[in-house]
Amino acid sequence: MTSVTLDTLDRTRLRARRRRRSRWAVGIPLWILALGFLTPFLWMLSTSFKRDIDAYTVPMQWIPDPVQLSNYATVLLGEDSILPAFANSVLVALLRVAGELLTATMAGYAFARLSFRGRDKIFLVYLATAIIPSQLLLVPRFIYFQQLGLYDTLWALILPGMFTVLGTFLMRQFFVAQPPEFAEAARMDGASEWRIFTRIYLPLARPVMAALGILAFVWSWNDYETPLVLISSPEAYTLPLSLTSFTDEQGALSPGLAMAASVVTIVPVLVVFLLLQRRFVQALTHTGIK
Amino acid sequence: MAITSKPLPAARVLEPPLARATTARGNPSQPPGWVGWAFLAPNLLGVLAFTLVPLLSVVGLSLTSWNLVSGLSGIEFVGLQNFVDLFVDPGFWNATLRTVLYAGISVPLTVVGGLGLALALNRDVPGRAVLRVIFFLPYIVTVVAIGMVWLMLLNPSAGVVNQLLGAFGLQDLPGWFASSHWALPALIIIAIWSGVGYASMIYLSALTDAPTQLYEAAQVDGAGAWTRFRTITWPSLVPTTVFLLVTLFIGASQGFGLIALITAGGPGDATTVVSYYMYQNGFQFYRFGYAAAIGMATFAGVLALTVLTWRAQRGRTLHD
């Protein structure tokens, strides 16, 4: 009896020690790798405080000397301030997120909880469309928006983002998993369909809506290819497009300004991500696999 | 869901409350069909206008010869001519080859790297939450910021990367974006750097669903780490791997943002992958019909590859 207990005790102690050691055996290389991954961002931050002549020095300069804030001042308050583009990006992202949340929850609910003729066929079409890459649609969208007079306006960026197949799919998957009994009970009490949707099912969907909203926000905020094709005048630039315009007198990229503008662009999305990280990852994993 | 009662149109409104209650108890009541259509309508109309119709017009456009200058009246139906031209266009085949090279190297390395990272992050390592954010960071940053900072890091003479390589005593440092040999490898490095965190995030969520009780049983049976991974972990990760391969391949074959930003397909045509070739034809030469044909051809290729991957995976899981 005693020998057995001693034996197991020893074994657990040994295992704990081994685990502690492996914690660091994996941890240290991982942290070194992470530092390597972080380098571009550290360089970005460092360069944003540098004078342009200090950007390419041999040996490289990690701590800016002198540290100067003028890049940020120029980028934010100068002649070619990115603030109008910032405002455009906010407007586009908010309208896209609001539109997508509204239309995707309604459509997802319809696919999941309401029955009507042709529903499953339409859903099949939605499914088939979900894997179409947006780049394939750029040429026809370009032509359309030109014919509609929406080319080179923010609407060309906003409208397609308000009605998405992916968002609908995500919401449908959520509503399908909700008990239909709530609706049946409410119907017996004479509640209208709209009321059932907004008072019962929509509140349940809040976490999924948050996840979808963050995903849509980040995609909208970072999109470069769509505005590259559909926007031409600087007044309608969103942030990614306006980032490309920081050049010095010779027309070459001004490292300090470009990096300061990059930092300004990244911060909002980083804050949103850090605050709602868990939801973001949930949404990302649910769009594809489940 | 499919076998619910038929919707009771108009009559339902006229029903006395008692009768309605009995119907509802017998089989769950459903509102009339137009309610569903009404809920669906806003999204459906938008998807029709901005996704489905453009999608159908890509097919139509690919059968026409048209440039912007001639206006809508200048559209000319040319049948399959664009595809015939595409077939004998060396520019297209070179671009396709580069795409295969670019995606064929970057995607598997991203997936393998993501898997390794996920297995490491799944353990009890110090500062795990921070590590996850660090690796994932590139995914939430716009491609423009990424492109600009890497352009600096990979500067051939004074960039951080070459200075570090030089410090290790390496001679003949790569010219990166200035060299037609090194431009594509540079893009591959950036693709891996920015994709690995995403892949690991997807793997991590799959790992939490892995059957953990089996591990303890296997450990008791004296199975080594590799055997445990191969027989328990890996089978549960196969669907995730297929998903990642497919989505990353589609992304790698369709995205052109980084190339438009950094190299404009150059030097020479060293980084003209097929998506950039489409962008060039469409939005620089305004050959919309031809661009549409390129888009369709590459997407068809990716789709075929997707189906093949799917089949292969299905075959394997059936065997097990």
Automatic annotation (TrEMBL), chain A:
It is found in: Cell membrane. Its main location: membrane. The chain crosses the membrane at residues 24-45, 85-111, 123-143, 155-175, 196-219, 256-276. Keywords: Cell membrane, Membrane, Transmembrane, Transmembrane helix, Transport. The keyword Thylakoid does not apply. InterPro entries: MetI-like, MetI-like_sf. It comes from the Bacteria. GO terms for cellular component: plasma membrane. GO terms for biological process: transmembrane transport. Residues 86-276 form the ABC transmembrane type-1 domain. It is a multi-pass membrane protein. Belongs to the binding-protein-dependent transport system permease family. PANTHER family: ABC TRANSPORTER PERMEASE PROTEIN MG189-RELATED, ABC TRANSPORTER PERMEASE PROTEIN MG189-RELATED-RELATED. This is ABC transporter permease subunit. It comes from Auraticoccus cholistanensis.
TrEMBL record, chain B:
CDD domains: TM_PBP2 (cd06261). It comes from the Bacteria. Keywords: Cell membrane, Membrane, Transmembrane, Transmembrane helix, Transport. GO terms for biological process: transmembrane transport. The chain crosses the membrane at residues 34-56, 68-88, 100-121, 133-153, 182-204, 237-265, 285-310. Pfam families: BPD_transp_1 (PF00528). The keyword Kinase does not apply. GO terms for cellular component: plasma membrane. It is a multi-pass membrane protein. This is ABC transporter permease subunit.
